[in-house]
Amino acid sequence: MDAVVRTGASALARRLGDWRRTGGSDYVALAVAIRGLIRDGRLALGVRLPAERLLAAELAVSRTTVTAAYRLLRDQGYLRSRRGSGSDTALPEGQRLSTSGLWAPDDEALIDLGCAAPPPPVELAAAARQAAEELAGYASSHGYYPAGLPELRSAIADRFTERGVPTGPAEILVTSGAQQGLDLVLRLLTAPGERILVESPSYPNALTALAAARLRADPIPVTDDGWDLEPVLPALTAGRYRVAYLIPDFHNPTGAVLPEPQRAALIAAAYRGGGLLVADETFAELALTGRPMPPPMAALDRHRRVITVGGMSKSHWGGLRVGWIRATPALIQRLAAVRAGVDMGGAVLDQLAARALLARAGTILPARREMLRAQLDALVGAVREHLPGARFRVPAGGLCLWVELAEPVASALATAAEAYGVRLAPGPRFGAEGTFERYLRLPFARPANELVEAVRRIAAARADLDALRPGRPATPAVVA
User: Region annotation Disordered: residue ranges (predicted)?
Assistant: First the structure.
């Protein structure tokens, strides 16, 4: 008999948070909240929901309310039930979960603001042709390079050196994207059940990687005032954490930059406590304002406590699955051994294309920054015009605008926006269960006209939510 994955009543209640925020009847609000968890991936498909009686007790509502909510979800295709076997999460036919875990309909006309990734640069075609021409030169080899092509390792090392971090090829491991880099580090350096420091909010796929490794994430709060390290530094100094995961440059999702004194303080605390800092530099090359940037974390690290992960998905193109890890040569050798048990190395053709693109970085990156500046300006103007109650700080770089709404309705707004052809990443995707319901992450990676139109549609969806207040007809925000 297949094992059934279950979620307990208390765990589901924590994920639901303030589930009554959409207004209307309790059973409708509860159904909308559970549906939102399913749609954006916070509640996996095929998970057995708790018994109606148990969830009712946990939420302090009548069993009739939970029964009606489950019935509504079954009618809409979000639950499948068999008599005596409980209710399992599902999706209606014609809808799917995207690879990021965020729900998306099969609709190419959708304006996708769930993914912070730009289109490829025009130089990609030339780089691909060059890679294809060079590929024949590797035909006499076995084609397996667990640490990466030597030529690409050298090119990445040179890029670090240009940024003020002297690096040799032996300090570089090429990965299939920055996400795999983090996964390899976690495989090597952590054990199930271990606690790890991670920013809150943080990158959803990093949180997924931590969960897959069965790690316990303890938060480093990132607020409007930046990183709150006061509760973190003593614990790191005392050796309570072996690993901390950080996005110091144009943090995802807030766009904030970790100041140099705090970088130095974290490195010093990690050194004293014997810990390691994993610095995700995926956005580091996307400075947009010309303001001076703090040195890279590794440039401040005299004791080799910093492991840097990065990749080409944000600066170049997500379809080119090439990333890297920078660490000590000894650690790189150990990571390469772990990598050999995963996929034996990345595709040679992709690595050759990546090397060709890095050789053109002097042309590509300035053009990318100019494009992103214009798109950020368009997005900021549209939010100010169409979402006047929203608050945000304009980031100095990266790809993300972190928008605070006047009310905690982000998940409901993401659901409502689907009817208007916009896919959103609501705040709870970036934090612990039930948190950041006042926030949306709005990437500015799409053309300016699409960003303006998307914000107009979000404003219309927000107006729909305003119409759903207690006393109004009890209908879901969106019937899918």
Answer: 82-101
